[in-house]
Amino acid sequence: LAFRLYHAAITAGGILILMRALPSRYGLRAALIAGLLLVLSPRLVSMAVEIRAYPLLLAISCAQAAMVIRGDVAQSVRRLGLFVLLGVLSGYTHFFGIVATSAYTLAIFIDARTVRGAVRVVLAYALLLLLWAGLAPFVLGAANLSSPAPGSAAPAGGVGLGDIAAFLAQMLVSGATLVDLPVAALCFAGGAILLLVAAVGLGGQAARRGTAIRHDPVIGLILALAAGMIVTIAAALLVSQFDALAPRYNIWMLAPLAVILALAADGAIARRGRIADWVRHAGTALLVIGSAAALVMFLVRADWFIHGPSRTLEAMVAKAEKPLAVLHVGDAWAWAY
Questions:
Q1: Taking a C-beta distance cutoff of 8 angstroms, is the pair 119, 92 a contact?
Q2: Nearest to 72 by CA among 205, 259, 216, 210
Q3: What is the average pLDDT across 273-300?
Q4: How far apart (Å, rounded) are the C-alpha atoms in residues 187 and 211?
Q5: Which of 11, 42, 272, 282 has its Cβ near the most Cβ atoms within 10 Å?
Q6: What is the pLDDT of residue 326?
Q7: Which residues in 212-229 are b (16+ Cβ under 10 Å) and which e?
Q8: Is the pTM of this model over 0.85?
Q9: Element (H, E) at 292
């Protein structure tokens, strides 16, 4: 229990670091919405209490996203040094931290205001690559598994469009949410509306501001998220022995996604006007209601989704009037019932 609370505390600390960075650029309301979206995520709640690397990876991702939001990392040697330190910690926490840090490096590179700053970012990334060299055996080992470990193997028939769609869907929701289709529909509808609001709003800002919009932190987070998605999907297509699309490996993406959705919900990156406000309010309501319902459903039957339905199965066996055997094949606990 102590280790679970320790990991949960680290996750909470990462969320607070992210929330503290947002008011300086976008206001307190955006910070509160981002925090709300994160704590209402069953995917985050289930990962936060696991005695594994994923809560730490998410917390570091929140800190890296906070640095992108504060901006001007490339202009300060001290900030860039802190970013390199976080990158090393992220990579050695889990090797998917390399993907996360590389994506965030792209974000701080496009924010560089001078050639000197851009060169600093390139040199910092070269240093990161050198410091990550110790991870090579682990990365190569995962890519060359002759007999994959249970739960880590890619789909037997290879990665298809359905697997990619599931990966994209579970960036917003968890497997537990997908059990209840109406609740999942609320989350998807709300998320889609807010992403549309963000796209329209940023499109209008880009037309007015031109290339200067690259210094808006949300652009860096969008590029980081997009780069992470592209690299992950490419890895899944190229490395058949390893399931790169597994939601737990990509838990770091929750941080930038929550910020993007929060800024759309808050109106910081949305068009102004009565209709635009109504649309983003509707999207926010759908996403929050769906997320809250999904979290309640998850907490009521958390034993089905975290480490398998062992308690429920044990109770069924204990209540059985006749001798009973329960046979489970495979690792898809969340879909056992």
A1: no
A2: 216
A3: 92
A4: 33
A5: 11
A6: 66
A7: eebebbbbbbbbbbebbb
A8: yes
A9: helix 274-300
